[in-house]
Design brief:
binds zinc ion; 22% helix; 25% strand; alpha/beta; single chain; 7-stranded mixed β-sheet; 6-stranded mixed β-sheet; 19 strands
Length: 335
């Protein structure tokens, strides 16, 4: 069985599969790429040929234009392709719509590149699938024992309680446009919130695509078509940057909220002027990461972007060989 180090290499462009001659989530334009999901630090423009889930291809077209990738091949979850003896399949990663783990089999050894992932239920995407493998490549965004994300329903209840207490103020929620915003909306609907939700244009665009892809989000309105009065006591969702720039000046005395895993760090919330932090993460927390390492039963793990050390130490205590892959170009902020 060939060791994965002999056929998967870290290069300045990203992780490279030598026999298959393709990159995984390359950070620069390459001839052939497999892209795990639509976030900007993973789905980059300019590749010649790309394999991804149909949803990820749609997201990339919306964000970067129809021709940013010359050739695309949509690969459904669970189907497989073969290149020069490398078998490729995609399985749900539970991170955002269309997000995939890449399962590579070569010479009898199986490597899973998990991309970004989480383990908890998300009404806007399929749940993470555990795939047993020989080598598991994991992210490490929240890989410290202090990171334990609370139940998302508790966080949504905090928001609904604040709405009730402050019927005269707009709740302005900063949420990353792809994934987080739709999840917050879906969680609000699940909690019984039926009113229209007002959106910044950048968020509206992604929500329309989610609707096209079959995710119900209820009644959504654009902020641009509403006057100040309409927004009193309502929920507005905008990209995190917009909650702090000129765009947000149209709201009088809003309650600024931010939905992010980083909101567990109070200091970060304070620095950003966030009055109501909502700890809602699309990345695995410490418990989800360690649970996953155990469940995939891989004797080897490689740890990519984030905090590698604690997870490597944890793996070693479980008798799992672990190494850090220094991968650059993936942002931890887009969470
Ligand atoms: Zn991501
Ligand atoms: Zn990432």
């Amino acid at each position: 069985m060939p060791k994965p180090q002999s056929w998967l290499k870290v290069t300045p462009h990203g992780l490279f599969c030598m026999p298959g001659d393709f990159y995984l989530d390359p950070i620069k334009a390459v001839p052939k790429a497999i892209v795990t999901h639509g976030h900007a630090d993973h789905a980059r423009p300019g590749h010649e040929a790309v394999i991804a889930t149909p949803e990820t291809i749609e997201i990339a077209k919306m964000r970067m234009g129809n021709n940013t990738w010359q050739k695309t091949e949509a690969l459904q979850y669970g189907r497989s392709l073969r290149f020069n003896g490398v078998n490729i399949s995609l399985e749900p990663a539970g991170h955002v719509i269309g997000s995939a783990q890449v399962v590579l089999t070569y010479g009898g050894s199986k490597v899973v590149v998990s991309g970004d992932y989480k383990r908890r239920q998300d009404p806007t995407c399929l749940p993470f699938k555990v795939v047993q493998c020989d080598t598991f490549i994991t992210e490490a965004t929240f890989a410290l024992p202090v990171f334990r994300h609370p139940d998302d329903h508790t966080e949504i209840k905090k928001l609904l309680a604040s709405l009730e207490r402050n019927p005269d103020r707009t709740h302005l929620i900063g949420a990353y446009a792809l994934g987080k915003a739709q999840r917050v909306i879906a969680l609000l609907r699940k909690a019984g919130y039926q009113s229209p939700i007002f959106l910044h244009g950048a968020i509206k665009k992604v929500c329309n695509l989610y609707k096209q892809l079959g995710v119900p989000l209820g009644e959504l309105k654009s902020v641009s078509h509403s006057n100040k009065k309409d927004l009193i006591g309502q929920i507005v969702i905008a990209p995190p940057s917009a909650t702090r720039d000129r765009w947000s000046r149209r709201f009088t005395n809003p309650i600024v909220c931010f939905a992010s895993g980083w909101m567990q760090i109070r200091q970060r919330a304070r620095q950003r002027g966030v009055e109501l932090p909502l700890i809602i993460s699309d990345h695995a927390d410490w418990d989800e990461l360690t649970q996953t390492l155990v469940e995939v039963e891989a004797p080897d793990i490689w740890v990519t972007h984030g905090r590698e050390e604690a997870l490597i130490h944890y793996a070693e205590t479980k008798g799992i060989r672990a190494r850090a892959l220094s991968m650059i170009g993936y942002e931890e902020q887009n969470e």
